[in-house]
Amino acid sequence: MKTDTLTVPGATLYYEVRGAGPTLLLICGGVYDAAGYAGLAERLADEYTVVTYDRRGNSRSPLSGAPAPQRIEEHAEDARRILAAVGAEPALVFGNSSGASIGLDLVARHPELVRVLVAHEPPVFDLLDDRDHFAALMSEVEQTFARDGAAAAGAVFGAGMQMRDGSASEDESERIPGGAEASPELDPELAAMMGRMAANMEFFIGYEVPPFGNYCPDLPALRAAGTRIVPAVGADSAGEPPHRCGLVLADQLGTEAAVFPGDHGGFGSRVDDFAAQLREVLHG
Asked: What is this structure's pTM?
């Protein structure tokens, strides 16, 4: 594995490159960083040049100024910058959760850069019939964060999302890389990642959840793109809001959603099966 950093407007991005072959960019969501995709990347590096990175404001990709509400558009530009830094031809892209939303915006703005996008459970709530509920929820999260802090805002978010018996959609404490396949004792690298995830929570709740939750993809641009877009959902997350978003997105794009093992965090809890399914979908 090779690691490097890239200075971009407003931040310094940390990224990792594994393997050889066509470029496959993995975009994480929530409180995750590049290490959250380590297991998936290692299983795919025999066929692809797998690129992972810490999104701006998270873990090893510090902002150059004070935290501020994040924009999907800026994060999509970061993905473009990472692809340019590794010298990729039109790439394959996989994104989970808000990483999938970032992938959608990247394709809408730069379709020539992406051959295939697999968008796994993007939280594009504006496409749902109950979009008003989620718009109100994002507003409540934002107001609660300003008034009472991250813990209180996280509780509001979790209750409103109603995922896994009311847990927040990005509470990935049980969805660590390797999941059930991992050793019950955390190795130092995994323990370090869990510490970074915990540190990312305030930034996620306060500066990403409200604006990212209000993001609406540019459907006309996506339909016009030459990119093959594959919305994806988890086999075990039926009925959860991001799963519903994946199904509606597929319908809006005139295609069918691919079903992946596990739930919203299946890339970590079912890593072997997930990697096999992603390989199959990328092959088309």
From this structure: 0.92
Residue 20's Cβ-side half-sphere holds a number of Cα atoms within 13 Å equal to 0
Bridge partner list, 4: 15
Strands (E), the chain: 2-8, 11-19, 23-27, 49-53, 91-96, 114-120, 228-234, 258-260
In the chain, count H helices and then E strands: 11, 8
**Rounded-to-integer distance, Cα 245 and Cα 124, Å:** 6
Q: pLDDT of 21-70, one tens digit each?
A: 999 999 999 999 999 999 999 999 999 999 999 999 999 999 999 999 99
Predicted pLDDT at 162: 85
Domain segments of the chain as ranges: 2-283
User: Does domain 2-283 fall into CATH 3.40.50.1820?
Assistant: yes
Neighbours of 73 (CB within 10 A): 14
